[in-house]
Description:
The structure holds 2 protein chains of 2 kinds.
Chain A: H1 4-16, H2 22-45, H3 50-61, H4 64-106, H5 112-121, H6 123-137
Chain B: E1 3-4, H1 10-18, E2 23-24, H2 25-35, E3 40-41, H3 47-56, E4 60-65, E5 73-78, H4 80-112
Parallel strand pairs in B: 1-3
Antiparallel strand pairs in B: 2-5, 4-5
Amino acid sequence: MPSNAIELYLRSIGYQLRALPADLRSAELAELRAHLLALAADYQAQGMDMDTAAKNAVAQFGPAHGLGRQLRRSHQRSTRSAAVAVLALLGYLVALAVVLTWLRVTSSAETLPLQIVGAVLLPLPILLLRRRRQRRSA
Amino acid sequence: MARDLSRGDVPTLILAVLVQGPLHGYGIARTIEATSAQVLQLREGSLYPALRGLEQQGFVESQWDTQESGPARKVYGITAAGRTELARRQDEWERYANAVDALLQRRRPSYDT
């Protein structure tokens, strides 16, 4: 039987995550609920009644508002990263189209293939360096 | 003496636990508690934002594990990139710990007099 203290705690976190899609929010709360119930079971095994065990489990988890905010931010970072990646790809494709058009107009038939390969591969060192910096700052 | 973990330490400890084998969040918390002989105190909810960050960086992956009894649990495992990242963080920690140790040893004679 779910404890009132645990359900109230999860409701508070659920409110912080209200902007998430419903299935993602449910999955987050289901995961937290499983952990909290396991913690409460540990406390009950030590002789506490269900309500006291649930309150101790919730206290051990930390303030609901803070946790909800951190979880919300972690999902926002994920959404932002995906949006930035899509925009970067679109920007690259537009720039590539412009460069290839310019090369087609200005280059000779002999050098054009090499110049096309160079234009396509140009961002690679920048992407690798950026990825290396992201890993270092993690 | 128990010591509260800072938020920045949590991802590193999660990787150090998961390198031993996949675990769910409750299991990760219990392992940190047991391995540190309860010296490291964790707000257990803080595991989850850290796990999300590690997943986004590709250091950890997860899947739901259905059980015969009880609710399904999400189990986390370390990736190859996570192992590399853990090794890097271990090097950094050793350099930091050696530097602090050197300073503490230098200050010790003045306390003895």
